[in-house]
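Summary for the steering committee. The consortium agreed at its last meeting that each partner would contribute one worked example illustrating the joint modelling workflow. Our contribution is presented below. We chose a case with several input lines so that the handling of multiple components could be demonstrated. No manual editing was applied between input and output; the record is shown as generated.
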Amino acid sequence: MSVATTANYLNEEKGLKSWLFTLDHKRIGMMYLFAVMIAFFLGGVFAILIRLELLNPGQDFFTADTYNQLFTLHGAVMIFLFIIPAIPAALGNFVLPLMLGAKDVAFPRLNLASFYIYVVGALFALYSIVAGAVDTGWTFYTPYSTTTSTSVISMTLGAFILGFSSIFTGVNFIATIHKLRAPGMTWFKMPLMVWALYATSIIQVLATPVLGITLLLLIIERTIGIGIFDPAMGGDPVLFQHFFWFYSHPAVYIMILPGMGIISELVTTFSKKKIFGYKLIAYSSLGIALISFLVWGHHMFTSGQSEFSSMVFSFLTFFVGIPSGIKMFNWLATMYKGRITFEAPMLYTIAFMFLFAIGGLTGIMLGAISIDIHMHDTYFVVAHFHYTMMGGTVIAFLGGMHYWWPKIWGRMYSEKWARVAWALIFVGFNVTFFTQFFLGSQGMPRRYYNYLDQYQPLHMYSTYGSWMLGVGFLIMAYYLIYSIYKGPKAPNNPWGGLTMEWQTTSPPIQHNFEEQPVLEHEPYDYDTRMVVNDQLIKKEDVKEKENINV
Amino acid sequence: MEHAEKKPSYLQHHFADMEQQTDAAKLGMWVFLVTEVLLFGGLFGFYTFYRAWYPEMFMEAHKYLDVAMGTTNTFVLITSSLTMALAIRAMQLGKKKQTIAYLAGTLFFAGVFLVIKYFEYSHKIELGMLPGKLYFFDGIQAANPHIFFSVYFTMTGLHGIHVLIGMIIIGWVMVRTMRDDFSPEYYNPIELTGLYWHLVDLIWIFLFPLLYLIG
Amino acid sequence: MEQQNTATAHHVLPLSLYFTVAGVLFVLTGITVAISFVHFGEFNIIVAMLIATVKASLVALYFMHLKYDNKLFMAVFLSSLIFLGLFLTLTMTDTMHRGDIDPIKEHPIKKEAVFYNK
Ligand code: HEM
Ligand SMILES: [Cu+2]
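What follows is the complete predicted structure of the assembly.
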């Protein structure tokens, strides 16, 4: 097993400055990873506090106002600071050029700029906490957001700035995918993760500017009162919701699409079988990107938008299920008769398929107007979007992180502890959020610090679940950080993957590959290839020698 | 980087050749322009929805915009687009002095545009034709005229900021041209600046009739 | 100028083309302004937008070289207009149809600003 003790991107240049001014996509990706993990921790702390208040009815730890600020901060930090950049800007930044066989992304300086813009945006968002934390909910609905006395401006300005960071990542990835594919890598020979990142970038580029202008208008409305969202001045607050959701519904696909990309990679690698329906999965990513722009009004069924509009949006919403369903069935078909092994990344893959199915199907339920009128703004919705965002995106993110960890650091983590953490997270997640489906369907509204006694048992279980989740994450933090320093050295290709990132050393050298790699086989050619001790071999050769049983 | 074959200094290490680099840069710029269109798109939406709600008010209020100044500015901006395009052409032919002259011309017209805009704005501010709560003009009879001026000021304001940013970038590529950074083989930054500048012109081409020339 | 490196070869368009395009843009600007003084009612906006679109296309095709460049750029640019169109149309399914089915009895949107009612 050849182990990289030689020069690599981590040790070639030393010192803080070599990191802060780096143009290497791998280092920028790692700085992003560091930053989003801090955000995830922060958001997690807020979440634990929210659940703590809800353990019992009545006011226990926080006042109603503080509670409002807590859930707003939780939502805003998780959405804008964690989940949107988590997969594309952190993991995607690291793996995209490697998967394409390129030396870097198309615009390395823009990439670094995007990171610093993220940091500036984050500082504005965090400043809002000390400046009288926002209490509007992460959605900043008018007219409340233009009248509350809390620090709406610094938080929205933060989100506005973060938007640019997201746009720059999108621009960069689109140009990279178009222009920097290795010789021989046609569009339909790209790894599916790349397709997913491509579709994600399209959404980032098309939707984020509208959020930008919306938040800008909100800020102007708040400062000088231009009246467009103010009904007392002939304006219309529902317009704000249209502007906001034109971004934010597509944004939920900025979150989930790259997660789906990761799952497509993991499911083939750990089934050691060619992916089923490659083209369908690729096209369905684009299909999701397109349809995601047509359904935002399903967040507004009870807002007072016209009935006609609700009907149109409800009708269109059902179409989102089709491309997601296509992916789901293709993944299942890939596993069918595969040689599945259950290392940690595969465990996350299976968890994803289970949880995202629940999240997606409840989404379809909510898309039906008659049901949504009852369920809107209840815990049912909270459970739905946690099943998609946490059960889907976060779980896929964790799967991807475990999958590429050996590549990133050149070290292996403890598989045993990884399984323990996985089990705690999987069970903890379901205990926390499945209960909320019941709470919601029984009428528990969202965004309240207090509730009727009848909801207590379910709320209690939900809070217990959140503790389990917390413990799971702490264990994960421990064994991952430990592995960076003390973990056994990782081989170049620990999982036997066939995409290009596994053809370079672990950790990769500074410019990724010794020579420009040329694509010689399709990304998932497990029919004809296999990896033994870091060596990619053709199965026919093996059969001839007959020293390894296939 | 280490490769011995002579790569020109302006070819970045991760690209195989100039064509790949230029094409990537242009694609990146076009994608960025898409984001600009959608950024303004929000405001065009704002315009559309409110015009549909208050057609008479828009009709009344727009009469207080100065068509002569608006028209002049349209001519000015089109001319600046022309000089920008000619600056690129001059550099394609390696005529450095001409490039600088045309860039200077573009800067000049951009400046004229902003000066005219300044006069328009100060006139409106004086009379109280201002957005939202700041509005205190008495002359318009239709309901909610302040909304029209909210639309007017946000749209032309955002556009004006883009003109300003454009001027900074044009100034910068002008300096770089003087420094001999560019040649017929490499003039990508001027080209990208041009794309941005033409987009600013493009947006004005729509703003002008929508705001000044309502039937 | 020497053109040994084909990779950097590019179109140098004739000067006359640039001036013709600018000339047409000037003329069209004149026409829209002139037409705006004639009242066709509904048609004014349609004509004005048509002329603006022609002008914008000229700028994009010639000044921005879309006509000669990689067609991908054209597709990218057009996509922005398509998605903007979607945004406007779908939002108007709401703004243009309020009260169609359930008539609006109270007006949440005041027709007149409070502060303006002096
Ligand atoms: C099959 C796909 C999906 C469908 C049909 C769907 C449908 C819906 C509907 C109808 C609502 C509105 C419920 C209400 O407010 O009353 C909703 C809310 C929500 N969904 Fe989904 N959804 C889907 C996937 C996703 C995904 C993948 C994510 C995130 C990664 C997500 C995140 C959210 C969030 C955050 C909310 C709540 C927004 C708020 O704060 O009001 N959804 N979804
Ligand atoms: Cu949605």
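Chain B has one domain: 38-212. The radius of gyration of chain B is 21 Å.
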